[in-house]
User: Fold DUF5590 domain-containing protein from Faecalibacillus faecis.
Amino acid sequence: MKAFLRKHRFKILVTILSLILIYVCFYMLWVHIPYTKHQNELTSIQESICDKYNYTYNGYFNEYQNKKTNYIVKVKNKKKNMYVLCNTKLKKVDTYKGNGVKRSDVKEAFYQKYHLNCTKIEVGYENEQFVYCLTYKGKDTLLYAYYSLDNGEFLKAYRL
Assistant:
């Protein structure tokens, strides 16, 4: 066996390195490049919305998928913060002006109701109003809870 490994050491090394190269190429072509392309498209959409309506981007952009795909952007307009909801054609559907409830207050309400810490919080649009969508992903549980952006009132929840 040792003689076989000594004799074919170069071929074994080349085979292993070739397999690693094939794996890296597969990852780049099927995972990394499509992900980067999608992120660049989202950045382009966010910039297009801000340019089209003369807004200043204020640090939040979300591709919110419900029945339809919508884009939610936090912008500044004349020194006022607001959320803008646009459809896939970049047409303004709705806006929310105001500060709304703090994220920490909504997280605390979620914890009080379910005794769980949410893993993700984002601004969404449900039932024709802006909401906080809180997500908890546990070992056997997936929980979505919706709270009003206006007053932090609990709206609905889905446990899967």
Notes: Helices lie at 2-7, 9-52, 103-114.
